[in-house]
Design goal:
Layout lengths: L3 H17 L3 H13 L3 H20 L9 E9 L7 H19 L26 E6 L4 E9 L5 E6 L4 H18 L7 E8 L2 H13 L10 H14 L15 E9 L6 E7 L6 E7 L4 E4 L18 H7 L1
Parallel strand pairs: 1-2, 5-6
Antiparallel strand pairs: 1-3, 3-8, 4-7, 5-7, 8-9
Helix pairs in contact: 1-4, 2-3
Length: 319
């Protein structure tokens, strides 16, 4: 059984890491973009951000004044037991969020949608969001915090099967141009695309693709992986760079995730993570061990399964 005090302590450490320490995969991707960028203002922004990330880590201060809207992704092995159960788990994550808001500190961004009231701790009705995933076997829990910007950088459209790949490209490029020209996202960013599902699951897929995949990772479907590479290239060919200035470094990486949908439609969502890609991960074991990392490792074969039953050895043999 995993002790609840270790979960809360680990969650508080993750909130600090996510706000201050840029993940290495994103840092490498941003440096690669800076190396090829030739737009004057875009180059200036990229260099300033790289210096800012280093200063944030040295000073132990949040890397961006807008620290986003903290959210949690929780994954656990099938045999996992948590002291106090799921209610205690969610309470620990809410306490960790409130404590980190005052401790890191984070900007208290969460307010009531109508009355605009807040508790100055990023906790309220439905906040922070907590999403769950499960894996066969094992007694462990992965805690993943993502501090994603909560205003813009997201769009959705109901496409149809006849729109095909070209229709997907059009909406993708329309979204990027709108993000850049209207200041709706902070580029360059990891772009996540959700295809299929219902409207709500399509949005979830796209956001997870943006926030829970590392730079350089590829979808396990080779055809989708090829689309990801193509979309990164065309996203960087529209003449926009950092923060919408003239350049060629708008997309650090493009990740696509799919879900089965209604036969008559093809839902699509587009999400820009952020110029400050804030995420941190830890696995907590039943014996109290904690292993920190930056790769969420969310999209496993199990998460992308298509069959009714899950038989890992049989599927591996078939491959």
């Amino acid at each position: 059984m995993i002790p609840i005090d270790i979960i809360q302590k680990t969650a508080e450490t993750l909130m600090d890491k996510a706000a201050i320490e840029i993940p290495q995969d994103y840092l490498d991707g941003l440096q690669a973009a800076a190396d090829v960028e030739d737009g004057d203002l875009s180059s200036f922004v990229l260099q300033a951000m790289l210096e800012n990330y280093e200063a944030a880590k040295e000073d132990r201060r949040a890397m961006c004044g807008d620290t986003g809207t903290p959210r949690w992704y929780v994954k656990m092995g099938n045999e996992t037991q948590i002291e106090g159960g799921p209610i205690a788990l969610e309470a620990a994550l809410r306490r960790a969020t409130a404590n980190a808001t005052n401790g890191v500190p984070l900007r208290p961004n969460r307010v009531h949608p109508l009355w605009r009231t807040d508790h100055n701790n990023n906790v309220g009705i439905g906040a922070p969001e907590i999403e769950y995933g499960y894996e066969p076997g094992g007694e462990w829990i992965d805690l993943i915090t993502v501090h994603k910007g909560g205003l813009f950088g997201t769009d959705y459209r109901m496409l149809f099967p006849s729109d095909g790949i070209e229709g997907i490209k059009r909406f993708y490029l329309d979204s990027l141009v709108a993000f850049g020209k209207r200041g709706l996202a902070c580029q360059p960013a990891i772009i996540g695309i959700g295809l299929g599902g219902c409207k709500d699951t399509c949005m979830v897929l796209g956001k997870r693709a943006a926030c829970l995949r590392t730079v350089g990772s590829e979808n396990s479907d080779p055809k989708i992986a090829a689309l990801e590479r193509e979309f990164k290239e065309i996203g960087n060919s529209i003449g926009m760079g950092a923060m919408g200035f003239v350049g060629k470094s708008m997309v650090v990486d493009c990740n696509i995730e799919v879900g089965y949908c209604h036969t008559g439609g093809m839902q699509m969502s587009v999400h820009a993570f952020c110029l400050s890609s804030r995420r941190a991960v830890a696995r907590v074991f039943a014996d109290g061990r904690v292993e920190y990392r930056t790769d969420p490792d969310w999209f496993t074969d199990y998460q992308r399964r298509e069959t009714v039953e899950w038989d890992a050895p049989a599927m591996e043999a078939a491959e």
